[in-house]
Amino acid sequence: MKTLKNVACGQTVKVTKLTGDGPVKRRIMDMGITKGVDVFVRKVAPLGDPIEVTVRGYELSIRKADAEMICVD
């Protein structure tokens, strides 16, 4: 299973599933990251944290721990 953490810069992927529970999952969904949405990875920091993405026209920074909970295709 591929997660957003493993996606290279410049790639666009589709979210297939969100893992995790409670407030963490809610925070990810509040950012507009839901099943079926396309996510473009703009930049990954040198140590992999944070990951900068574009979702629904918005530019976001996602922590590496949160990116591991976003399954992509």
From TrEMBL:
It comes from the Bacteria. Residues 2-73 form the Ferrous iron transporter FeoA-like domain. Pfam families: FeoA. Keywords: Iron. InterPro entries: Fe-transptr_FeoA-like, FeoA, FeoA_core_dom, Transcriptional_repressor_C. The keyword Iron applies. PANTHER family: FE(2+) TRANSPORT PROTEIN A (PTHR42954). This is Ferrous iron transport protein A.
